[in-house]
Recover the amino acids of this structure.
């Protein structure tokens, strides 16, 4: 993996760079939203409601006269936060479960991985919707629900990668010198299974954005007046003929951020493991 | 083969049972009170206690689950907390809608993915392959609920070719039914085809680089013959496995798409159950979707066994 990073080849890294540029731009908008957005996302202006794109409002206004560009920029905060935290929850817990299952084997492996397979058998959106119903509708709960949805995928991957690493001599040597289980897992195994997990994390980011948007679209994620691309799109559906930009703009934002993360994921996979490309 | 079927059936039954436990436990820790939702926010504590006692909600969860499980096994899904109507008939009336939606969407996805995936693989690393791969990546990033909205704006509001929603059973009026299902099926199917194109492509590339295909090529067989006679069957095995997962994904996505197109399917019943805090409705609808997914996975497991005799031999060993 280190070798892959050390040989910087523009051609091989171009997908990562294109994806990185898209996500970088969205991240900058999200982090510096108060400076980038021309208006507050909550500023009502009944006199200029449902106005088309203009100099004052480049992406038009919504049904309450709020600036769509500003709301789209602020909504990036929610989507990015959800993407990073949900993928983080999935990555951390999924990896730990997968590594522990492979490392200890036996009944630990059997119980943990059967439970993971069980969670995997639910369609992701159904599991997320049911979990949201159970946890309550809020953006924090959306992060947890989406994170739980990702755990089985990461655990499978981590388990498979750990099984390969466990056969390596340096792990046997670590055992032979009496290193503790914790040290072997954190010092010897985890650094060597990072490559496939990184690729999976990029895919998880994009899927988290899709899931969060879907939950907010259904009214189960971010709650109005907080702007999220999903709830903006949902509101826009009521004004499709008068104000199509209300549906087009937030959808385009979701599309671009998912595309950006997918490019990063595909690019990383090509760079880290060229065999996987085909 | 008998052993393969028996093993898969046992695994299916155990998974279904475990799924029902997970769903029951998850749904029964819902924070919003079902009583308040059914009786209104002004309900007195006495009325709430009476409501919960009448429906057995005050008993331990294990007892509740046991009773629900036994009833469900007999086809009794309980009654709705909202209107005291039996859930079973309501669920049954909605299953054909979701089945039709998922099946049509699956057809759309495969009709697109199979030829494009094969075409990309047969022109590996050429311009066609690169443009098809890029198209699949772009298509895969489109949220299906956004695509649904765009399709409504184009075909319903601007061109006025298709109705923006609603459902007429196929048996009642096939033409209207298909007109109503075109956009929902396209919204789900087009997005799903993105992944399937990539899977078909990579699976076919792997098969095309194997020795027996090189032999067939060396013997002078045409490209079409090599793909049809020799490569397709083997490349379909990994494809089928992913397609099955994708079919399950389509059932899950019905929750969103049915809401957009006002289709009275199982997916929209999940939302009804959540909004009304109607546990029996939510549980029955979520279990039905899970059952669909597990049945599809079972069928594909068996189909893969039939396609690849090595797996059947492996299961005997």
């Amino acid at each position: 993996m280190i070798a892959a990073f050390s040989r910087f080849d523009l051609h091989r890294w171009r997908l990562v760079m294109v994806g990185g540029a898209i996500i970088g731009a969205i991240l900058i908008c999200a982090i510096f939203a108060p400076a980038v957005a021309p208006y507050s996302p909550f500023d009502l202006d009944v006199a200029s409601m449902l106005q088309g794109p203009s100099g004052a409002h480049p992406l038009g206004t919504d049904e309450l006269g709020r600036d769509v560009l500003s709301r789209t920029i602020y909504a990036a905060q929610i989507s990015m936060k959800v993407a990073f935290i949900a993928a983080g929850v999935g990555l951390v817990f999924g990896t730990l479960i997968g590594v522990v299952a492979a490392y200890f084997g036996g009944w630990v492996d059997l119980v943990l991985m059967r439970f993971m397979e069980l969670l995997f058998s639910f369609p992701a959106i159904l599991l997320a919707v049911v979990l949201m119903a159970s946890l309550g509708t809020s953006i924090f709960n959306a992060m947890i629900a989406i994170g739980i949805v990702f755990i089985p995928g990461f655990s499978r991957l981590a388990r498979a990668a750990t099984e390969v690493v466990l056969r390596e001599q340096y792990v046997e040597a670590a055992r032979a010198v009496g290193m503790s289980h914790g040290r072997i897992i954190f010092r010897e195994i985890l650094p060597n299974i990072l490559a496939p997990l990184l690729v999976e994390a990029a895919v998880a980011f994009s899927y988290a954005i899709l899931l969060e948007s879907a939950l907010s679209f259904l009214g189960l994620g971010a709650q109005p007046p907080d702007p999220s691309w999903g709830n903006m799109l949902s509101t826009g559906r009521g004004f499709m003929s008068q104000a199509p930009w209300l549906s087009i703009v937030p959808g385009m934002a979701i599309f671009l951020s998912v595309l950006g993360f997918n490019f990063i994921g595909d690019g990383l996979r090509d760079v880290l493991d060229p065999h996987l490309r085909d | 083969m008998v052993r393969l079927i028996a093993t898969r059936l046992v695994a299916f039954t155990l998974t279904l049972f475990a799924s029902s436990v997970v769903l029951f436990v998850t749904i029964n820790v819902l924070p919003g009170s079902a009583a308040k939702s059914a009786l209104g926010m002004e309900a007195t504590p006495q009325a709430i206690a009476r409501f919960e006692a009448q429906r057995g909600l005050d008993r331990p969860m294990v007892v509740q689950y046991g009773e629900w499980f036994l009833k469900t096994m007999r086809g009794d899904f309980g009654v709705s907390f909202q209107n005291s109507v039996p859930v079973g008939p309501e669920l049954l009336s909605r299953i054909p809608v979701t089945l039709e939606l998922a099946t049509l969407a699956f057809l759309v996805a495969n009709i697109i993915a199979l030829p494009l995936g094969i075409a990309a693989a047969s022109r590996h690393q050429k311009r066609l392959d690169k443009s098809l791969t890029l198209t699949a990546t772009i298509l895969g990033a489109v949220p299906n609920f956004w695509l649904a909205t765009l399709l409504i704006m184009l075909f319903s509001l601007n061109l006025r070719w298709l109705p923006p929603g609603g459902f007429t059973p196929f048996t009642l009026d096939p033409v209207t039914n298909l007109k109503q299902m075109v956009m929902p099926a396209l919204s789900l199917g087009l997005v799903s085809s993105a992944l399937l194109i990539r899977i078909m492509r990579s699976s076919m590339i792997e098969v095309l680089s194997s020795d027996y295909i090189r032999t067939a090529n060396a013997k002078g067989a045409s490209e079409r013959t090599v793909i049809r006679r020799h490569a397709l069957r083997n490349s379909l095995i990994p494809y089928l496995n992913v397609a099955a997962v994708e079919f399950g994904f389509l059932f899950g996505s019905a929750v969103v798409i049915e809401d957009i197109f006002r289709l009275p399917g199982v997916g929209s019943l999940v939302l009804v159950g959540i909004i009304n805090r109607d546990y029996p409705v939510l549980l029955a609808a979520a279990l039905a979707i899970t059952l669909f997914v597990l049945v599809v996975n079972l069928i594909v497991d068996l189909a893969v066994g039939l396609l690849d005799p090595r797996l059947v031999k492996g299961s005997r060993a």
Remarks:
- The longest helix of chain B spans residues 223-260.
- The radius of gyration of chain B is 24 Å.
